[in-house]
């Protein structure tokens, strides 16, 4: 007689990362949720419960240092995403001061950019769009490059660098030696490019975010050259590689739920709660990490000081102890405090911008594409497991109407 043993936390984590499971990792997260706090064979901790993740995101004893053996940069040369207070708070204050005012009042401009991208495909008859390449990717790329002051002609270079670099976010043991070498090369190219851009701005500042960071009126707030470069790199990568998946995952949810698509067409205000639901149901950032600065008691277990912690944001978003019918896509879900943008002191700085881009793009898709349907379902997914989204999302339509 054989007895079925429940898969271990280590197995479940590996299954959630495996490329064959990329189209639907959620059944594996559901299994993780049976043990919301679980120890893995390598001594790290797998946290999948909503409350437990929130507790750790807000706990000052959980450090943003992921203890990633692959990250060889000295601590001071890491971005604010990986820093703890007080340096984190200092850097975040400067970035927020420069970033937030520049994105206020941007909705009209975003509407124009979306219109321009879709207009390129307007016609009188049936056609196809690759939502990723034609809309979801170029929109955030243009926006972040405009904000930071990266010249338009460098956008394609950035696109390819960002794509090569995001693979570096995945756990090292899922990558071949060649991939790791390729990553190092891409990092080197990014550093060279950013240094060139900074040197150029030093002699000819503009009114962009980079110039704002470089010439801050308060000398105490001016970043040192290394921090400036890593902050710029963080904003560029975060601006390139996350919003694309929010728009693409949102389009997928819309096309799989034709009733929701029809509602959005007649009620564009639905875009606001709908984007929140995409961030809960199929979040672009699936997981994050921390480490324990002290013993942390959580859900009756002690995570010992010095442990690595994996926060499964996408699993927490499907936790039935927090969300009713967690596996249902409910476009106007209330009480939707999802973990899609993280939480606590590292809560996403770009959340307002990403929300606005996705709301405007999804509303335009619903309004302008007549009888849209997916050409391949599920679509091919990107290799990356942490940033989850389709590689291509081809949508056929009867007509793309002018705005
Ligand atoms: C942090 C998600 C777009 C800039 C984060 C975190 C998440 C996240 C989950 C927290 C990570 C953690 O605590 O470990 C997303 C998603 C986006 C998005 C889902 C799009 C849909 C953006 C954009 C920008 C941005 C457009 C800026 C251009 C940042 C920065 C941080 C951050 C700077 C670090 C904040 C800190 O450490 O204090 N983001 N992000 N993000 N995000 Fe985003």
Automatic annotation (TrEMBL):
Record-linked PANTHER family: CYTOCHROME P450 YJIB-RELATED, P450, PUTATIVE (EUROFUNG)-RELATED
Organism for this UniProt entry: Streptomyces noursei (Streptomyces albulus)
Keyword field: Heme, Iron, Metal-binding, Monooxygenase, Oxidoreductase
Family label: Belongs to the cytochrome P450 family.
Classification lineage: Bacteria, Bacillati, Actinomycetota, Actinomycetes, Kitasatosporales
Matching PROSITE patterns: CYTOCHROME_P450
Domain of life: Bacteria
Entry keyword annotation includes Oxidoreductase: yes
GO terms assigned for molecular function: heme binding; iron ion binding; monooxygenase activity; oxidoreductase activity, acting on paired donors, with incorporation or reduction of molecular oxygen
SUPFAM superfamilies in alphabetical order: Cytochrome P450 (SSF48264)
Keyword Oxidoreductase recorded: yes
InterPro entries named among the record's database cross-references: Cyt_P450, Cyt_P450_B, Cyt_P450_CS, Cyt_P450_sf
Record's protein name: Cytochrome
Pfam families: p450 (PF00067)
């Amino acid at each position: 007689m054989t007895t079925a043993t429940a898969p271990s936390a280590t197995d479940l984590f590996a299954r959630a990362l495996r490329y064959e499971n990329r189209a639907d990792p959620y059944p594996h997260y559901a299994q993780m949720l049976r043990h919301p706090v679980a120890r893995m064979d390598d001594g790290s901790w797998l946290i999948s419960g909503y409350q437990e993740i929130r507790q750790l995101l807000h706990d000052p004893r959980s450090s943003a240092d992921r203890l990633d053996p692959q990250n060889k940069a000295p601590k001071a040369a890491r971005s604010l995403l990986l820093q703890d207070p007080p340096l984190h708070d200092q850097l975040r204050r400067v970035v927020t001061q420069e970033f937030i005012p520049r994105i206020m009042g941007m909705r009209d401009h975003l509407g124009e950019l979306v219109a321009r991208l879709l207009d390129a495909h307007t016609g009188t008859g049936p056609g196809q769009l690759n939502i990723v390449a034609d809309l979801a990717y170029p929109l955030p790329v243009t926006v972040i490059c405009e904000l930071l002051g990266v010249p338009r002609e460098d956008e394609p270079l950035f696109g390819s660098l960002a794509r090569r670099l995001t693979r570096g976010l995945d756990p090292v043991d899922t990558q071949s030696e060649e991939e790791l070498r390729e990553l190092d090369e891409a990092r080197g190219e990014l550093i060279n490019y950013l240094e060139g851009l900074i040197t150029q701005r030093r002699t000819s500042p503009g009114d962009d975010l980079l110039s704002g960071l470089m010439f801050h009126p308060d000398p105490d707030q001016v970043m040192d050259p290394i921090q400036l470069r890593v902050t710029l790199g963080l904003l560029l990568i975060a601006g390139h590689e996350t919003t694309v998946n929010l728009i693409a995952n949102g389009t997928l949810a819309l096309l799989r739920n034709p009733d929701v698509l029809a509602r959005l067409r007649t009620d564009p205000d639905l875009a606001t709660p709908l984007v929140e639901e995409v961030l809960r149901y199929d979040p672009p950032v699936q997981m994050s990490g921390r480490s324990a600065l002290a013993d942390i008691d959580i859900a009756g277990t002690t995570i010992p000081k010095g442990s690595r912690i994996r926060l499964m944001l996408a699993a927490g978003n499907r936790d039935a102890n927090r969300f009713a019918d967690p596996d249902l896509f409910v476009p106007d879900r209330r009480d939707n405090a999802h973990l899609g943008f993280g939480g606590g002191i590292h809560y996403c700085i770009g959340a307002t911008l990403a929300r606005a881009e996705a709301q405007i793009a999804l509303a335009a898709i619903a309004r302008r594409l007549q009888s849209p349907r997916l050409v391949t379902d599920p679509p091919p997914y990107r290799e990356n497991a942490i940033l989850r989204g389709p590689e291509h999302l081809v949508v056929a339509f009867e007509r793309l109407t002018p705005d």
